[in-house]
Amino acid sequence: MPTSRTKRSAAAALAALTLAITAACDSSGGGRTTSAPRADVLAVKIDNVAAARPPTGLEKADIVYVEQVEAGLSRILAAYSSDLPSIIGPVRSARETDLELLRQFDEPTLAYSGAQSALRPSIEAAPLDALPPSKAPDAYFRSEDRAAPHNLYLRPGKIPHASTGVNAAEDIGLRFAAPPPGGTPVSSRTVSYPSARFTFTWAVDRDEWLVSMDRTPARAASGDRLGAATVVLQYVDVQPSSFRDRGGNTSPFSATVGSGSAVVLRDGKSYDAAWERNTAESATGFTTKDGEPMTFATGQVWIVLVPN
Fold this sequence. Notes:
Layout: H1 4-25, E1 42-46, E2 63-68, E3 74-80, H2 96-102, E4 109-111, H3 120-125, E5 129-131, E6 140-142, E7 152-154, H4 168-171, E8 175-176, E9 184-185, E10 188-193, E11 196-203, E12 208-213, E13 216-217, E14 227-228, E15 230-244, E16 250-255, E17 258-266, E18 269-277, E19 285-288, E20 295-296, E21 301-307
Parallel strand pairs: 1-4, 2-21, 4-5, 8-20, 15-21
Antiparallel strand pairs: 1-3, 2-3, 6-7, 9-18, 10-11, 11-12, 12-13, 12-14, 15-16, 15-17, 17-18, 18-19
């Protein structure tokens, strides 16, 4: 029986063929009249404590979500679609926050190391392809250069995962375009969780916000400094969930359905913005203080879920 991933790959191919036929038949030059193919998103839950750094393949993600987890620490949910590295990791366990975030995408694949037993039914019921090591043992491996549990890695080529080349950010409506008017020049911005700290510093020579974690410059395993073209500080309600980790710590839940304020960093400036997401099935919209759609600089987008 075909898997949902196979069905979506076939659907993407059919959409691309339909688009090509429509374009060929359209002699008016007025642009496409059918919808573009959707992104085929691979989301990977990535460890982010000091023992897990540097990450591998994070620099290739379209969107990097940062969320608070137990004990005030941070963890990353990276969304890939336009470009897939050969190895991604280290991979860690899923959280309830991930399930709500991923409802924005069209049945994404979620790669994760495991989950609390109480959360597993929610993962299985979610509209996504759950991909822990038990379902794809050949796609995961343990590295010998660091200790468990910070040494689990994913080989996306072993899934398999059919990339459409569509940027995951564009797929959920984020617009890459010239900056809006206004903005306040800023050289850096820091965000803190109880046990984690992120600083984004504008680098004119790179046109990026260089990332530091816990006061240390953040790098990928390749040695490259991690940097974002656009950083979104999305202020959300963070509530205790009904789930706990093995140590008995309550897992926080970051609510991303609703509305609130945001700060967008791009091109060396800070923009006050607002976010809104009416339902779990809808994408998050970002607007300027004047109510116009917020635009993003071309490149990787970091979205940091900041507690109100």
